[in-house]
Amino acid sequence: MGTTPKGGPMSADPAPVAAIDVDQLVCGYDGTVVLDKISFRVARGEIFFIIGGSGCGKSTLLRHLVGLNTPVSGSVSFFGTHFSSAEPSARRAMLKTFGMLFQGGALWTSLTLRQNVALPLEEYTDLPRGAIDEIATLKLNQVGLGGFEDYYPAEISGGMKKRAGLARALALDPEIVFFDEPSAGLDPVTSRKLDELVREIRGTFGTTIVVVSHELASIFSIADRVIMLDRAQKGIIAEGRPRELAATSRDPRVAEFLRREDLLPSP
Question: CA–CA separation, 37 vs 39, rounded Å?
Fold first, then answer.
């Protein structure tokens, strides 16, 4: 009886491990289920959007992914390691590989931009003060805020606050960065510049990007893939490349969201 030659079907490389693997996740609060048994994967280096109308559970899902809320059931894994059921020490180690840009930037108003960016470095590293300040300055330069290190959040624009928040999210050179409605409150030009910065970060560092958004301009401009959530269904009603979904989906909820003619950008 013959044997399978080396390099044949029996020795095929396994599928690559996903950056994020969500399996049968149930999200909810105080006994109320918001999202019921949803599953999806995000590839390494992908710009992945979570989209849908108001109240569909986008931000709720994000909070469960990053550990701010505990799932009712199901699991979230990062690079093949379970996060939702990990021991506290293991979860803390994994948190060092995340970055998070909250709505509005969530900067401490009493701290300078440099001091804000330094916070994760102070929390998760043993670096000396000089090294922390040097890294914080570098990160601010990476997002186009060189020269603003000693400014306070009240002294800069909304778009600059978002970029400062992004600099803080990048402080630990994370493998994954999460964005919660990054374009909220921004004018179209500033929003487009932020999209370009997100794409540049992925291109330069290979960072996996997960974005919660309902902004079509951003979705069609930079998303590799999306999942669309629906409030009534409490789950995912569409998944794929946004332009393909806009062109081919027969689900009226998907069509209504993605084919808003007054907002749909040119190909």
Answer: 7
Within 10 Å of residue 73's Cβ, how many Cβ atoms? 13
- pLDDT at position 10, please? 52
Helix axes 113-124, 129-142, angle to 10 degrees: 120
Q: What is the 3-state secondary structure (H, E, C) of 164-219?
A: HHHHHHCCCCCCEEEEECCCCCCCHHHHHHHHHHHHHHHHHHCCEEEEECCCHHHH
Among residues 254, 173, 199, which one has the least CA distance to residue 46?
A: 199
Residue 189 exposed, middle or buried by CB count within 10 Å (0-12, 13-18, 19+): exposed
**188, 217 Cβ separation under 8 angstroms:** yes
Residues 106 and 152 sit within 8 Å (Cβ to Cβ): no
Closest CA to 230 of 20, 22, 51: 51
Under 8 Å between Cβ of 118 and 133: yes
User: For the sheet containing 98-101, what is the strand order?
Assistant: 98-101, 176-180, 208-212, 47-51, 225-230, 235-240
Model pTM above 0.85? yes
Band of residue 15 on the pLDDT scale cut at 50, 70, 90: low
DSSP-H helix ranges across 38-177? 58-65, 88-95, 113-124, 129-142, 158-169
Residue bearing tokens 């409490």: 234
Mean pLDDT of the chain: 89
Of the CA atoms within 13 Å of residue 228, those in its CB half-sphere come to: 25
